[in-house]
Amino acid sequence: MKLAVMVASLRKDSANRQIFENYQELAKDKFEFEEIEISNFPFYDSGVENLDIVIKANEQIAKCDGVLFFSPEYNYSLPAVLKNALDCISRVENHAFAKKPAAIIGASPSPIATARMQYHLRQIGVYLDLRFLNKPEALIGGVYEKLQDRKITDESLKAFLTRHADAFYNFIKESK
Ligand SMILES: Cc1cc2nc3c(=O)[nH]c(=O)nc-3n(C[C@H](O)[C@H](O)[C@H](O)COP(=O)(O)O)c2cc1C
């Protein structure tokens, strides 16, 4: 199965990007990954649906079996770079999010662990008609203590991400 991946932090040392890097290794027996480059999207303006970058992203998503978001929480919500990409792609006629299985993995140094961001993203997914995996929720708190040299050092987090990947794989299979 192939997943379209959106990483909603532009930082080179992003904890969320590092979790994605580790996830690719942990879930390589189940998934291939195609990252949607959202950092170069222009801010939404009328006509964005005709831009190559937006059309290409929509085509990438259409070819994938599911969408996986790795996102921090910014001011109790999702980062603007992700919201903007969702807004732009949502204006493409028959956009590829409709009925697509999706899952969220969010990491934060805080114990609330991106919960508020995740519920905002789920709310947006209602209008996009994304089909989100409900359980398990991937809320990674205290993330700075769980990474060293870009590797997850916390064994229980590795085991959890493997279980999450299994659940998402089965969810996609059941929804086909
Ligand atoms: C603009 C901004 C707003 C933030 N708001 C929150 C927040 O609401 N909740 C939270 O847990 N962390 C918040 N943080 C801290 C981030 O969780 C932390 O910077 C995290 O490392 C960002 O993810 P990244 O490492 O993947 O870039 C905020 C950080 C920034 C830059």
UniProtKB/TrEMBL annotation:
Pfam families given in the database record: FMN_red
Entry keyword Nucleotide-binding: no
Sequence ranges assigned to domain NADPH-dependent FMN reductase-like in this UniProt record: 1-141
InterPro entries, A to Z: Flavoprotein-like_sf (IPR029039), FMN_Rdtase-like_dom (IPR005025), NAD(P)H-dep_reductase (IPR050712)
GO cellular component terms, A-Z: cytosol
EC assignment: 1.7.1.6
Keywords: Oxidoreductase
Sample GO molecular function, one term: FMN binding
Enzyme class: oxidoreductase
Cross-referenced Gene3D superfamilies: 3.40.50.360
Name used for this protein in its record: NADPH azoreductase
UniProt organism field: Campylobacter geochelonis
